[in-house]
Amino acid sequence: MVYGYYSSGADSEATLQDNIQAFKRRRLLPRIMVDVSHVDTSIILLGAKLALPLLIAPMAMQQMAHPDGELAVARAAAAAGTSMSVSTMATYDLKDVASAGTGSPLLFFQLYVIKDRDFTAKLLRDAAEAGYKALMVTVDAPHLGYRQADERNEFSLPPPMGLRNLEGLQSKGPDGSRSKSSISQVFTSQIDPGLSWEFIAWLRTVSNLPIFVKGVLNPADAHLAVQHSVDGIIVSNHGGRQLDFSPAAVDMVPAIRDAVGHRVPILVDGGVRSGTDIIKAIALGADAVLLGRPVLWGLALEGQHGVAKVLETLRSELELSMALCGAPTLAHITPSLLMGPMPRL
Fold first, then answer.
1. Half-sphere exposure of 42 (CA within 13 A, CB side)
2. From which residue to which does any coiled coil extend (predicted)?
């Protein structure tokens, strides 16, 4: 049941699969005779220095993978010198996760907008008081995508786990049925499907934190996001879990970069599995990537140590691949390192 929730995508899972295939279709064209005796993988994001251009994506209910859940992930991210984004649907309190991540250069709070604006404002206050430095506002989920695995498994959050940051909201189904997951019940009853761009202006009135919008695929929406003064864009199809047959996120990075120029940082998630994937994403125009499911697999296997292994593996792969590409810094990763998509098989 838990593996099905974490691993599955929407409907036929075409987008889920294409996220990975989009990286595999591209080839790297390395440069030679470049001094790569020292390779620097660091990046500056919102004024914070991260050890590598990889952040941990927001993912719900991590305690299902390991008893320490988000606490273990926060500790591993801080030790690796990188950032994580903590989900509204976390199984640990925002403040406890922030405390566990002490030393992290940058902590994001991922916001699902609650219909009750007072409760949304409370979440934002809690995040700021706990030390979070930026917001990731998910904008691609007015309703939850259809996931066959969850319905087949009658998925629900195993007790005594709970959505700690949503305590106080009435989110249970009227009949206590397990036919919908806890997260699905929350979406149905609590998450606001009526968001418009005016919400960004309201958000500015209740929070001073920088705002990244997560779930952008259309260049026209990226342009609107910048017009509404967001601080960053995350190109994402929600890990293939929302609209099936939407494009692979990484395929949309060049068009979105063209639409917004370098006015805001662009992050991308979905399908990142290796150091070369990170290089490809940056060469296409992203500033950094978000990593999702591999973190959960490491967490499930060995808790904090497992997540640390995943991050170290990707850091090592990135450093080696940058050297082999003739790119001693991230600034050397340009479109010229890519051959373009290979033909689909």
1. 11
2. none
- Active-site residues, by number, are 238
Q: What is the 3-class SS of the chain, one letter each residue? A: CHHHHHHCCCCCCHHHHHHHHHHHCEEECCCCCCCCCCCECCEEECCEEECCCEEECCCCCHHHCCCCHHHHHHHHHHHHCCCEEECCCCCCCHHHHHHHCCCCCCEEEEECCECCHHHHHHHHHHHHHHCCCEEEEECCCCCCCCCHHHHHHCCCCCCCCCCHHHCCCCCCCCCCCCCCCHHHHHHHHCECCCCCCHHHHHHHHHCCCCEEEEEECCHHHHHHHHHCCCCEEEECCHHHCCCCCCCCHHHHHHHHHHHHCCCCCEEEECCCCCHHHHHHHHHCCCCEEEECHHHHHHHHHHHHHHHHHHHHHHHHHHHHHHHHHCCCEHHHCCHHHEEEECCCC
Q: Is 147 annotated as a binding residue?
A: yes
24 is an annotated ligand-binding site residue = no
pTM recorded for the entire structure: 0.94
Average pLDDT over residues 246-260: 98
Asked whether the predicted pLDDT for residue 239 surpasses 60, the reply is yes
Q: Is 272 known to sit in a ligand binding site?
A: yes
Higher model confidence: residue 293 or residue 173? 293
- What percentage of the chain has pLDDT greater than the value 70? 94
Asked if residue 214 belongs to a known ligand binding site, the reply is yes
